[in-house]
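hey can u run this one w/ glycyl-adenosine-5'-phosphate bound, need the structure tokens asap thx
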Amino acid sequence: MSEKNDVFEKIVSLAKRRGFVFPSSEIYGGFGAIYDYGHYGTLLKNNIRDLWWKAMVQLRDDVVGLDSAIFMHPMAWKASGHVDGFNDPQVDCRQCKARFRADHLLEDFGIDADKATIEFINAELGKLREAGKLKCSNCGSRDLTDAKVFSLMVKSNLGSPTEALSEENVVYLRPETCGGIYLEYKNTVNSARVKLPFGIAQVGKAFRNEIVARQFIFRTREFEQMEMQYFHHPSMTKEKYEEWKQSRWTWYALLGIPEDKIRFHKHEKLAHYASEAYDIEYDYASLGGFKEVEGIHARGDWDLSQHSKFSGDDLTYFDEKTNERFIPHIMETSVGLARLFLMVLDNAYTEEEVKEGDVRTVMKFPKSLAPVKVAVFPLLKNKPELVAKAREVYDMLKQEWQCEFDDNGNVGKRYRRQDEIGTPYCVTVDFDTLGEEDASLKDTVTVRDRDTMEQVRIPVAELKDYFAKNLK
Ligand code: GAP
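ok here u go:
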């Protein structure tokens, strides 16, 4: 196994062992490409989401928020082109039933089949088959099907039990969150007193029937997106595009990501309505290289034009200053929360030799993202005075930060456990805190730093100030 795969296995294992991410429905044998987030995973995910929301909404005067429904009128997905065109080409192994993305199979032979027609894909697969090069990477069989189109849309039914079974009642679980933003563009203009240029941001679940999803939480069938659609006059496209590219790039520093671990990838093949498309890619050690995290796309007037045409509603904007009426153009930033989550785990995962032969695993999350900020320990769990004092400290600190009380095992073990969940500070209440030997140490505690492992002695009365300063 390569070193990269080793990191992958270690991260997946730590994520489960320490309660970040669990495979869904495990007691039933799991459920393909669906994951649940445990206590620390939920806290970390919320912190990443909040950091995005702060940068994208709270700190901006030109972006407002939205929380639209997952179910939308099915016609909306006709208008967007998803019902007819949101497909991937699929190939099956007749022997072991493994399933592949045909464009990915071709990519392995250096053939670019991104957005290619099914005819092109099958012609290229045919050539490889004839040359004896095409075989199943799972079982080695050469018995692979031709590629067929596979819709990524996840269907559901709404309505009364009898109606629900009919095809006309099919509804879709949204494949991207931006659809709801387009549909609420008009209500937002009419209610939020916004003027062009402005953006609407939302965070929410999206669903895709992905053919292959084998990279832990990188590609799943249910996932969260954080999307922002920026409505503007077409003359502003270039300027706003550069601004958003820059602002999204700098945001990654807040997640602790060094600049040399991210890069822009320019799309050479654009959707017919798009004028510019870049991805931000991160160099995932666990996945063996650079992979897409976020897309920044100039989408022109396609979305509002299509919804205007299909709904019959006028979605033009009237600019009072210039007396101009037009369909706004859209700039999109779209990022998957789970991809960011995996990026943050990947970047934070560290193994360090503490002393010879003694290696610790520590998640070096930026403090702002750490799921638990402070852990509080009584030195010994069977000394009621220590436990009572530690509880008191814990009760005080948890008013301000996510804290954890831990009295299991010895202090060394507790440090290792907190290192693995990335807790920046551990506070220990010991006999000196009680002032039994040295009255000058009464009501002081040790504070241990996750990264340096150094310990300082601090009066309990100063802890809040200390953490307020150091947890920024
Ligand atoms: N509205 C545009 C859009 O949805 P996309 O490139 O299909 O564009 C945007 O998706 C982002 O959503 C991706 O960059 C990725 O971070 C995330 N994403 C897409 N499919 C995903 C999946 N199956 N699992 C996890 N994240 C996904």
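The domain at 3-76+154-346 is CATH 3.30.930.10 (BirA Bifunctional Protein; domain 2). anyway lmk if its weird
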